[in-house]
């Protein structure tokens, strides 16, 4: 029989790794609340038609990468990204009628049937956000600046912001025509994929990494030649605001991004960690001023982004918090177990992380376990302690031992641990270190 394994491109996150995930998730939640965003949770499964309409029928995501299935005659898809579902929820709950400006963030798994590689998975996790109801470049600039600050907080090195404007849908159509006029006579030199895209989605040719396409695309007109006055003004203001904020960026006139819903501002943020390889794009985002109306909602401008959490984990130097306990209660035999459980409960009521070793192991093995867990204090309950109504409190760092009545034993253990953690608090605060 074949051994059962996780699905290719879908990974377990084991407890040894989860601390770093949680630190980044908490730092993200904190950043978002500082900027006035509120969390939204939408389903992992949506109607297939939502993604086809929002992301675009001829995008790679919709054409090749979606996990779609039919359940009781209903075509459904595991969400490949968060924007479409968030916009659907915004429309469905008539949020615009309740508030003129909406800032939502989300975090969770997304699913794309891509070829797995380092930094590219089939189930991956995004930290994302969407703002509905603000069409000005101030919103774009604040978002980009916020993301740079967040990546700096995570200790990501070589942060590089790339921005572009793709214009309003009318400029996009003009540009599509101009691109086709330029590329059509050279079609034979393009890759087979791009020859097909020339018919279906010519803008995607600009994203191609194929040498044949790169050679042809080099001389193509850029979207900037066709932006209208409004688009141009939006982009110039965005750049001026980023300059004023001191947020470095580069303009790449060929940045188009792979999803069809974008209008005007587009951006990507890269990191420089050598282990990122092909996954160096940490964050992607942009405006989608037409999508809400296209999905049947009100005319509301919108902008958002998503960061790949697995990529942030590779790029960030955030370290793992210690995941052990502060105290171990050690009953030395079955008679001591009920008293041990009560003592442990009292410690936890005092917010002390503690474990009881109810296996009835020898003192030696329990002390070894206390060390492995990083416990500083061990409360030992043998037959003689039970008979006398006392507990042996062993401080493994101060190398002290005291026999104390049970209620005092809890007090002393708590005092020792709180004093020790005060020492910890006097260190400079580290990322996402939770107050105890
Ligand atoms: P996206 O560029 O497709 O945009 O994805 C955003 C980020 O998700 C990427 O930069 C990358 O870090 C991560 N990511 C994407 N695919 C994978 C994968 N297969 N494995 C690991 N990480 C991946 C969006 O998804 C848009 N919804 C962003 C957005 C929000 N635009 C407006 N609002």
Structural commentary:
Helices cover 40% and strands 21% of the residues. It is α+β, with helices and mostly antiparallel strands and 436 residues long. The protein is elongated, with a radius of gyration of 28 Å. Mean pLDDT is 93; it is low at 424-436. It binds histidyl-adenosine monophosphate (HAM). Histidyl-adenosine monophosphate is lined by residues 81-83, 112, 114, 119-121, 124, 126, 128, 130, 259, 281-286, 304-308, 310-311.
Helix tally? Answer: 16
Q: What's the arrangement of strands in the largest beta sheet?
A: 1-5-6-11-10-9-7-8
Bound molecules: histidyl-adenosine monophosphate
Q: Helicity, in percent?
A: 25-40%
Total number of beta strands: 16
Overall geometric form: elongated
Q: How does the helix and strand content classify structurally?
A: alpha+beta
Strand content: 15-25%
Query: What is the averaged pLDDT score?
Result: 93
Unreliable sequence segments: 424-436
Euclidean distance between termini CA atoms? 48 Å
Radius of gyration: 28 Å
Major sheet size, sense and barrel closure: 8 strands, mixed
């Amino acid at each position: 029989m074949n051994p059962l394994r996780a699905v290719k491109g879908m990974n377990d996150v084991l407890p040894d790794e989860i601390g770093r995930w949680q630190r980044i998730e908490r730092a993200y939640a904190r950043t978002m609340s500082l900027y006035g965003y509120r969390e939204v949770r939408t389903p992992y499964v949506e109607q297939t038609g939502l993604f086809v309409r929002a992301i675009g029928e001829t995008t790679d995501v919709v054409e090749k990468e979606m996990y779609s299935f039919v359940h009781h005659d209903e075509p459904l898809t595991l969400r490949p990204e968060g924007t479409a579902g968030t916009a659907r929820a915004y429309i469905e709950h008539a949020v615009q009628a309740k508030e003129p400006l909406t800032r939502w963030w989300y975090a969770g798994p997304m699913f794309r049937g891509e070829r797995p590689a380092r930094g590219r998975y089939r189930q991956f996790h995004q930290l994302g956000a969407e703002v509905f109801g603000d069409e000005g470049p101030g919103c774009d600039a604040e978002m980009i600046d916020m993301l740079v600050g967040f990546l700096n907080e995570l200790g990501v090195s070589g942060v590089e912001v790339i921005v572009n404007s793709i214009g309003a849908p009318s400029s996009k159509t003009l540009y599509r025509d101009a691109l086709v006029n330029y590329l059509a006579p050279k079609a034979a030199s393009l890759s087979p994929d791009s020859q097909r895209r020339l018919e279906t989605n010519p803008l995607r040719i600009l994203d191609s990494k194929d040498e044949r396409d790169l050679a042809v695309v080099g001389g193509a007109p850029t979207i900037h030649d066709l932006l209208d006055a409004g688009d141009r003004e939006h982009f110039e203001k965005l750049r001026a605001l980023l300059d004023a904020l001191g947020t470095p960026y580069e303009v790449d006139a060929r940045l188009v991004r792979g999803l069809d819903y974008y209008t005007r501002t587009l951006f990507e943020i890269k990191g420089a960690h050598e282990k990122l390889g092909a996954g160096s794009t940490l964050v992607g985002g942009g405006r989608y001023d037409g999508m809400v109306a296209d999905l049947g909602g009100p005319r509301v401008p919108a902008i958002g982004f998503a960061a790949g959490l697995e990529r942030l984990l590779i790029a960030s130097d955030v370290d793992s918090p210690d995941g052990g306990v502060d105290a171990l209660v050690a009953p030395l035999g079955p008679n001591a177990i009920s008293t041990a459980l009560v003592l442990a409960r009292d410690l936890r009521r005092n917010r002390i992380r503690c474990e009881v070793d109810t296996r009835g192991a020898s003192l030696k093995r329990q002390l070894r376990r206390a060390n492995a867990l990083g416990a500083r204090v061990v409360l030992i309950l043998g037959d003689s302690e039970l008979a006398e109504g006392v507990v042996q409190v062993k401080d493994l760092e101060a190398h002290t031992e005291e026999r104390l009545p049970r209620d005092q034993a809890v007090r002393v253990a708590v005092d020792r641990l709180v004093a020790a953690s005060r020492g910890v608090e006097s260190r400079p605060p580290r990322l996402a270190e939770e107050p105890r």
